[in-house]
Structure formats: structure tokens, C-alpha cells
Amino acid sequence: MTAAAHPALDELIATVALLRAPGGCPWDAEQTHVSLVQYLVEECWELIDAIESGDRAEMIEELGDVLYQVLFHADLAAHTPGEDFDLEDVARHMTAKMVARHPHVFGDREAETAEDVVGFWDELKADEKPHRTSVLDGVPMGMPALALAAKVLTKAEKAGVVPSPRADAPSAPVPGESSPGESFPGGSFPADEAELGEALLRLVAEARDRGLDAERALRGAVRDFTAEVRAAEASAQTEPR
Question: Which pLDDT score is estimated for 176?
């Protein structure tokens, strides 16, 4: 492949280096990987807002902010004793990773559907990280509760584990059918994402009115479920074959 010229990117990289160099910005010089985490989180959420709003100008700005975080961390590492890696190392590692994860593009395997590709990824990740013993290993537990719940449920499904209903919990409502007393206001399960969003918002509002923390409650439920998943995996490993 012929290397493409990226003068604007090169200029941004040089700008980051200048700001962090002696005589540059005092604030930039004091930052660490840890101190920058809050800004990385904020910038990622701002990018998500821009994507969901469909605003092109906002997307350009927020993508730039996220890119700046990557460049900042790489420059910081390049000038931190003991870390000894830079942007080239990051890019080189990512290229190797993507080539290895796409044998249907760079190798001799074939993939006709997106599901085939996901299957490749699962196999390759298992080979890359043999120390992982659970489908939940590598799931960042610091994710927002709703995103974390969806991630854990998807991973758990691959292990054949589904949430165990509480003994006193009502059965799940059938879409479109009224089930008074269900968790969702109105009784029937939402028909689409718009209705689901409104129902979740009302649940959060009611939880707040009752002095309950919806985020903490869901995180607690996810923690309990992850324990179920790991217990099921451990049990499966000890069962005679």
C-alpha cells in the first residue's frame, strides 16, 4: 500500500507535541493518563450526541476532540519514562490487530454475512486472550448501567445464560398486550424505541420520586447477574463430559 499524505493530521500531531513540550502549555505539561480520563469520557459522550443529532459540523468537531485525546495520550506516553511507546506504536498495533481480525479480507477465510464476521472475531479474541476464562472477561464494568446491561446480556447469551426471574416477579408482557401492574407504565411493553425511551424515562422519574437511584439499582442487578453467569460457567467446567 502506498502511504497517503495527511498534512492536516501531521500538523495536529505537531501541535500536540508543541503544547506538551518545555515552554508550551503548563496545564498540558501537568496532565497524566489518569487525569485525562474525565475528559476522554466527556468527549466520547459529546461525539455520541453529535452522531445522534446528525449534525455534520458537530461531528467534525467532536471527532477532532476524541482524536486529540488519542494524540495527547500517545505523546504523553512517548515522554514518560517506563512507558516508552508513541503514536506509531499505537497505529502499528491497531493495524496488526485489524488485519488479524479480518482473515476474510486479508487472508483466505470467507465471510458472507456480518454474523460470520462476528464468529471470526470471537474465535480470534479467544486465541489472542487465552487467560480469559469467562465470556464476561474484558467487559468494562464502568460503562453506564443501560449499556452495561445490554453488553452483559449479549455476552451471557453466548454462554447460554439468561437472567433468572425473581420468584415474586410477574411474567414478561407480550408486546401489544395489556398487563396491569407490570413495570412499564401503561401495562403493555413498548412497541418501538421511542415508546421504550418514554417508558424508561417515566420509570426513572418514578424511582426518583420514591427516593430510588435507577442507575445504582440497574448496576446492582447487573452485578448479581454477572455472578450468575460466572457461577454457571464454573459449573459447566466441572461437569463430567
Answer: 43
